[in-house]
Amino acid sequence: MHQFDSTALKAVDDGSTARLVADPATSSRSGRAGQPDVEHLLGLFRERAATVAVVGLGYVGLPLSLAACEVGFKVVGYDIDAATVSRLNAGRSPLQHIGDDRIGKVVADALFSATVDSACFEGADAILICVPTPLGPHHEPDLSFVEATAHTIARHLRPGHLVVLESTTYPGTTSEVMRPILESTGLRSGEDFFLGYSPEREDPGNAQFETARIPKVVSGDGDAALALTQALYSQFVTTVPVSSPETAEAVKLTENIFRSVNIALVNELKIVYDRMGIDIWEVIQAAKTKPFGYMPFYPGPGLGGHCIPIDPFYLTWKARELGIATRFIELAGEVNNGMPSYVLNRTRDELDRRFRKGLSGARILVMGIAYKKNVSDMRESPALTVMELFDRAGAKVDYYDPHFAVIPPTRQHASLAGKACIPFEDYALTRYDAAVIVTDHDDVDYTKLLRFSKLVVDTRNIVGSLGLLSDFANVVAKA
What we know:
Blueprint: H1 6-14, H2 38-46, E1 51-55, H3 61-69, E2 74-78, H4 82-89, H5 100-108, E3 112-115, E4 126-129, H6 144-154, E5 162-165, H7 173-183, E6 194-197, E7 216-220, H8 223-233, E8 239-241, H9 245-275, H10 280-287, H11 311-321, H12 327-337, H13 339-355, E9 363-367, H14 382-392, E10 396-400, H15 426-429, E11 434-437, H16 446-452, E12 456-458, H17 462-465, H18 469-472, E13 476-478
Parallel strand pairs: 1-2, 1-4, 2-3, 4-5, 5-6, 7-8, 9-10, 9-11, 11-12, 12-13
Antiparallel strand pairs: 6-7
Helix pairs in contact: 1-8, 2-8, 6-7, 9-11, 9-12, 13-14
């Protein structure tokens, strides 16, 4: 691990240091053609004259590409999905929360292009990696996308390249996984090429916090790599430098573990308070009026998205490798993972209490299958688990979500692939014994849902937040 020298960083970033140039004649390592001029690279980034390659054009890579383009960088996006590449080059967005107008403008201005050809890395000055880091079948880290990307970049690596990993992972990935693959070329990190880590902080669909408005943690494998990483990112976002890639990797995990643990706490309190006849939502609403020492978190049907359900397990896996038990984090995971079953049981109890009816043969409508409101993103969505649990209990399950006409194939829920969204019509809603609100999209007529449903199980308190509870209290059950 390299020692962090903030004085040296400031000198490099201010351009007031001596040129960090090595004599090409001193290089004898195979594959090396002389060490790069760091000051020249810093100048390219500061002047926004560099070409940036972004690997992965999804929920992280595409907003990052746009943020760089919109301050003048030329960006080439690399993705293995030819359909996504074709769509982007035509000026159309593959993501619902990013408008075609933003894509069309940077394409028309010749600032952005997409490709499936990895040879694009050769002409880039910086390569930013935004690929998935899912979990394997036993909750172990799956770094196959990171490793495959590193091997692809290695085939095109040249002196002077800045390579930055953005994918969420355990501390040590940049140094222990990325660096050896890239150094297998004969080039050396910190001498021939430069390696950094800057964790993504995307919140899809939240216009208040677009990429350029979210401070970005940056790190590098050595002082020069840190200076270059900060020089690049600081052109379009506020940067927060830290001492090492391991620290930056830990920052990202800490942020999401913090959320996971606190969500688990309110999920557990929800169960306890429900037994006491106390509304957890009313409790939180009152508690958050305290101006210090409290931060509101909200219960739900389980965790979804690309971060919170996954990231804690990256740390627990690494901790086990070191012989350390992470009981607190793992307990939070157990609580959150148990929420879909709680939703199932609450629905079963309400059907029995109200109609003397069990789940077997019951018709259940799941409202919303995205992992969060107002996005067309269903990664790790608890709704899919909820649907499968109802199906196993013998219920007949359908769904309504205006963002998904059909459920696409997923790694964990193959049985649901191809299932179609029902029409949101009066006659359709009356057919169900219970409608379960799992995702509280804004573009849904909840008054209509309540008017034509026999029972609505609300896991998000959307009925209460809209002021509809008093009119439909006899229909609603909270879960």
